[in-house]
């Protein structure tokens, strides 16, 4: 991915952050982190608890974000990284995509996971891109 590149990631436990840093280093890319409006606590992240915040949020369409996203207008290539929660990206990723102008960008994706493949996650991101009517080239991540 030649040209000006940005690795934009979300990481609740720093696992995805470490991978994002490696990817940014390999690509000589800038790096930025997206943040939920309300940070997650350890209790929020208990995926086996049906009443935990993240379990409930994964059944909703969007999660509020802190509006500190970078200006991507000067980037040609955007790499979005995220963990996999319940076989899909955390819902914050959909909100982030909603708030970026990805038109005419090259987009690549990566995820960290304890054992889930990327099929459902990629499908959700592609649906979010389609819902926003973005003209974006989604590359294999």
**What helical percentage do the residues reach?**
25-40%
DSSP, total strands: 5
Structural class of the helix and strand makeup? alpha/beta
Mean pLDDT level: 92
SSE order, one letter for each helix or strand: EHEHEHEHE
- Could you name the ranges where pLDDT drops below 50 across 5 or more consecutive residues? none
Count of individual helical segments? 4
Report strand order across the widest sheet.
2-1-3-4-5
How would a crystallographer describe the biggest sheet? 5 strands, parallel
**End-to-end distance:** 11 Å
For the CA atoms, what is the radius of gyration? 14 Å
Proportion of strand residues: 15-25%
Principal-axes geometry comes out as: globular
Structure overview:
It is a single chain. With 141 residues, the protein is an alpha/beta fold. It contains 4 helices and 5 strands, in the order E-H-E-H-E-H-E-H-E. It has a 5-stranded parallel β-sheet, covered by helices on one side. Helix 3 links the parallel strand 3 and strand 4. Helix 3 runs parallel beside helix 4.
Task: Summarize this structure briefly.
By secondary structure, the chain is α/β, with parallel strands linked by helices.
Keywords:
141 residues; alpha/beta; five-stranded parallel beta sheet; 5 strands; 27% helix
């Amino acid at each position: 991915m030649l040209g000006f590149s940005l690795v934009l990631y979300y990481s609740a436990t720093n696992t995805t952050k470490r991978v994002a840093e490696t990817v940014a280093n390999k690509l000589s890319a800038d790096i930025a982190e997206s943040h939920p409006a309300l940070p997650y606590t350890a209790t929020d992240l208990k995926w086996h608890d049906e009443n935990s915040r993240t379990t409930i949020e994964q059944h909703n369409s969007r999660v509020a974000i802190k509006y500190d996203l970078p200006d991507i207008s000067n980037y040609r290539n955007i790499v979005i990284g995220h963990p996999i929660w319940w076989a899909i990206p955390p819902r914050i990723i959909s909100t982030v995509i909603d708030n970026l102008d990805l038109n005419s960008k090259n987009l690549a994706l990566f995820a960290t996971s304890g054992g889930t493949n990327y099929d459902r996650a990629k499908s959700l991101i592609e649906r979010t891109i389609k819902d926003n009517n973005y003209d974006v080239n989604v590359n294999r991540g």
